[in-house]
Amino acid sequence: MTGQSKHISGEPSREYVLLTAAHNEEANIERTILSLLSQRLLPKRWVIVSDCSSDRTDEIAQAYADRHDFIRFLRISRPPGRNFGAKVTALRSGNELLQDVASGFIGNLDADVSVGPSYFEDLIAHFEREPGLGLAAGFVYEKNGADFQSREKNRTYSVSHAAQLMRRECYDAIGGYAVLEYGGEDWHAQISARMQGWTVAAFPDQKILHHRPTGAGDRLTRHAFRQGRMDYAFGSDPSFEFLKCVRHYRDRPLIIGSIMRLSGFFWSYVSRDSRPVSREFIAFLQKEQKEKVREFLSEATHIFKR
Fold first, then answer.
1. DSSP per-residue letters across 60-129
2. Is the pTM of this model over 0.70?
3. CA 20 to 30 Å from 193, out of 55, 67, 235, 269?
């Protein structure tokens, strides 16, 4: 039931399967593959899907698939051009190669990240301790000079798609990853999971090293504008959107991105763009967001009265 924690009887299978979509990732994918091969608990099957790559991505992935029975490689073709739904389309194609594999968990591993050798084993341990947990991942760390630092937007309640696992019952309940014009499949998955009564969690001690900064494949201003259109497509509450974007008013680089994100949101608002989600989805999201707005205003009022 929506809004209630689920409790699964019995021990879930510790076996898991993974999907990876890769588009022109020759600079990163071998690091990702070696990271996965170092896992203390290997997946039962891992499907790597080349999304119309034109570099050496296919060659690298196929070479490892030839050497490891649990790795499958698939190449798909599509019309050229930037397409933020292409990643999930590729993942759905790869899912066809998992239909004969029974597992307790299914997950995504991006082709430009690496994780520690106990990463997936540790995530499964969290699932075993928390029967109501449906979706989990670690915190994303990005390069800042010579070191990796926790991404500013990491939150324990926000589960990155970069290296995540989903309980199989949860994955089936939400219909898998959604194909969305402006991206945001990770956000969509966690909202959908909570709607079905599952909890979602990101664990700070589980590091995901991201080797290509978010938005690097696009201009940062255009990336932020697209995110605003994504927010509108999901039905984000306007008051929440405004507060989320203006919180960076003292940081000039971030405020530029925030202005572009807010512009994208109101562009779609004025254009009356269609939304690919249900009314129930929008109502659920806005209820959560309005609660956060009330909490923010209450805290701000308390500070002001001091």
1. HHHHHHHH-TTEEEEEE---SS--TTHHHHHHHHHHGGGTT---SEEEEE-TTEEE-TTHHHHHHHHHHH
2. yes
3. 269
